[in-house]
């Protein structure tokens, strides 16, 4: 909300500062909100609630294109596209203060009001670094963020350049993408987000009945399945803009299968007292190596390709076309990380279930596991012994 005040200023540093403050708020809610959901619901109901929560990412992104495009047309000034959002932020703050109550950590899973054992932040990080399912799924999700970040910034521009290269559109006075492309892409992002997130959760829920590795396999299928369609969207843009929109629709739907499932994986492979730290680390990793740098990298590659070509509409289109193909390679790598997650998901989930059931505890350093038998004295044993 505060970053929008920067739209009234002519100083870049002030806009940068206020936008950074918004980033702090976004990081806080993204870290805490899923863990609150985890402390309110379990099992399939938790998965459904997470899917509702994660509708916000694709739907909000799509609405940003739609609302921004329309407000710019009405006000004839793009600054007002930034100024309409504070009202929504204020409404969210009021609802958070008046409605949301923080539940006790892990109570819904342990069925007990007894406090859980907390470890230090350093011990949490050490334990998370040994959690294969968490690390691998986070890397897979980083690939998803890389692709979605690139598409979010460059797709309207790419479609605009494809029309210029095909000679079906005259260049706009501003030199930027047309409002129709931004509006269409925004609608596609909203619809595919709702379809993809809900379909991903439902497919995973049904498949999980027969395959305990269903979650990472659905993520891998969605990411790997989106690759050929996003590739076709890029290579067919000059020949048929309609075909490009169709391929983008299918590719983004498959890409959106991941959002809620990745969050659910984190919540059941990480113990309750460590989930906020895990969420923070996953968000940092996915933004740092994903959508924060991918638009810049795509633009940099496009510029380097164009340096050796004459400055024409076709060369501008081709350079961005080749740069966007990087997303296909990143998608394949991310799919591999999700497939690797499937190899460890059962053991990591079982360990977390044993912890919340009180059948073993961790030392304050987050290393030794202590099995608590039904009778007799507690005995320290390796993790592998607990899970066998």
From TrEMBL:
Localisation per UniProt entry: Lysosome membrane
Gene Ontology MF terms: transmembrane transporter activity
Record-annotated Major facilitator superfamily (MFS) profile domain positions: 1-343
Segments passing through the bilayer: 12-37, 49-68, 80-100, 134-154, 183-204, 216-237, 243-271, 283-302, 322-345
Keyword Nucleus carried by entry: no
GO CC terms, sorted: lysosomal membrane
Annotated keywords: Lipid transport, Lysosome, Membrane, Signal, Transmembrane, Transmembrane helix, Transport
Primary residence: membrane
Extent of the signal sequence: 1-27
Pfam family, one: MFS_1
Membrane topology recorded in Swiss-Prot or TrEMBL: Multi-pass membrane protein
Catalytic activity: a 1-acyl-sn-glycero-3-phosphocholine(out) + H(+)(out) = a 1-acyl-sn-glycero-3-phosphocholine(in) + H(+)(in); a 1-O-(1Z-alkenyl)-sn-glycero-3-phosphocholine(out) + H(+)(out) = a 1-O-(1Z-alkenyl)-sn-glycero-3-phosphocholine(in) + H(+)(in); a 1-O-(1Z-alkenyl)-sn-glycero-3-phosphoethanolamine(out) + H(+)(out) = a 1-O-(1Z-alkenyl)-sn-glycero-3-phosphoethanolamine(in) + H(+)(in); a 1-acyl-sn-glycero-3-phosphoethanolamine(out) + H(+)(out) = a 1-acyl-sn-glycero-3-phosphoethanolamine(in) + H(+)(in)
Protein name: Protein spinster homolog 1
Organism expressing this protein natively: Podarcis lilfordi (Lilford's wall lizard)
